[in-house]
Sequence to fold (300 residues):
Amino acid sequence: MSHSDYALFDRFPDLEQRLPRIDLMAGPSPVHRLERLASGPGLPQIWVKRDDRCAIPYGGNKPRKLELLLAQARALGCRAVLTVGGLGSNHALATCIHGARNGFEVHVLLFPQPVTDHVRMSLRLFSRHATRMSLGSSYEELPRLVDRYLERATASPAPQPSRAGSDMYYIPAGGSTGLGAIGFVNAGLELARQVRAGEMPQPAAIFFPAGTCGTVAGLVVGLKMAGLDARVKAVRVVDPTVANRPTVLALAREAVEILARADRSVPSVTIRDDDFDLLEGYFGAGYGAPTQQGLEAIAA
Fold:
């Protein structure tokens, strides 16, 4: 993706030299109207931004974060990355695929979730792209396993240490750090540019899932920087101990601080608790557990 296509660098050119980034994306993800979903009288227009088309060979919302996280791993001289997620984690799989394509060993610590067709497909791809896979008994066990894993890495010979231990760089679940969230600061600026170019009308509200909250945090910051008055409505899809307002606010503020340190021309926007909605009531029996309503909506 060229400098002019990456909305954050186009808006703040000095950031390109100060914020390492590996180019994983084919360009800004396209937008289009969902005619059938809003075909009834009186229904609002519904548009989708196709991040599933943003990266080759594996898209979704994760490559936006990984562009920055893998770049930092490379800048620190790390040869390996470690990340965590469920058995069907799109983030962990994206890290495996894009990490391996960029010369990293990728180690993943996984936790159980209901085994669906999606999970079976993900496991086949993990076996093809991951350097090493390990399974914990639960999400709550992962911090202890991560510490043990990084202790072993620290004990091994390494040419240059990373902030995570020896030559292994740790990427938290979902890639949700302040740095990772900056990928969605760019997404907010990118969407605002598409609106102003007439590719779609200005949205009244933007809906997306809230998992580890990096996507929510970055988009809230990006939309505010862009001056796009669209209400962010994040639907919680994990346990509330993971997806919650304090987490969104902490990630958003960390992203703003990183950008401000890198380039003084970046506005220090203030992120408040009322800048977004966190929607409850759509989380099923557990992480990755399909609900009947969800299955019916997919089939409709």
The longest helix spans residues 178-196.
